[in-house]
Amino acid sequence: MRYFLWVSDDHVREIYRIPEIMKRIDAVRNARELSRGSQAKGGADTPYRFVFCSHPEGVATAIPKVSSERREYIPCDVFDDNTILSDLVRVIYEAPVWSFSILSSKLHLTWASTVCGQLETRLRYSHTLAWNTFPVPTLTEKNKGDLTRCAEDILLAREAHERNDEVLERIYVGRRFRNDTERLEKLFELYTKMTAGQPPASPARSRRKGGGGGHGLTADGPEVLSLV
């Protein structure tokens, strides 16, 4: 964890009264004025701000890009405005609470472990392979309410995972899956239905401008969540 100064336009007058902070800001201004880069020079007039900032305000759900293959669940978590997330995680901003239940499930881990790659033996989580393709049945308001309560329980006590799996898997087949093989059979059955009749995907292109990310939970439900 690293700490840094995060100054918004609303607090500029306040920081100008603190000499130690002003020394740092003046050093940033000088460095930007001497820079050969146009972006850095353009930010010389606002040295208290980052030249580039992709952090929007609001609640963020984070999923590590790489996690141990020994884990029983993907170790995702929820953060508020006071935490700036690094490029070591995938992020969903302002996601509904029930989506955390899905990310934290054994069902999603089984899918991700099958369709994603690895870094050595560790799971390398890809939003385009794991999240954008993950099949979810149409969720009723009751389903969402049940999953929301499960997500809240997991955030308070991690041992609540078992209950979460119970609730989510019953949405899929009306009972608990017997094993991972059965989980994958159902997921690929839904995935086949979900992608039937869709045109072939065009070659992937970089889409850095305007933020990245695709869409997840696109099965039969209307929800579209961007994971970047």
Task: Present the secondary structure layout.
Blueprint (H helix, E strand, L loop, with lengths): L11 H4 L3 H16 L3 H5 L17 E5 L1 E2 L9 E3 L9 E5 L3 H7 L2 H10 L1 E3 L2 E3 L2 H5 L9 H16 L4 H13 L6 H16 L18 E3 L8 E3 L1
Antiparallel strand pairs: 1-3, 1-4, 2-6, 5-6, 7-8
Helix pairs in contact: 4-7, 5-9, 7-8
Descriptors:
228 residues; three-stranded antiparallel β-sheet; elongated
Walk me through the structure.
It contains nine helices and eight strands. By secondary structure, it is α+β, with helices and mostly antiparallel strands. It has two domains: 32 residues, no CATH class; 154 residues, no CATH class. The strands form three sheets. A three-stranded antiparallel sheet has the order 3-1-4, with no helix packed on it. A three-stranded antiparallel sheet has the order 2-6-5. A two-stranded antiparallel sheet has the order 7-8. Helix 4 packs across helix 7. It is elongated and about 65 Å long. 21% of the residues are buried. About 9% of the residues have low confidence.
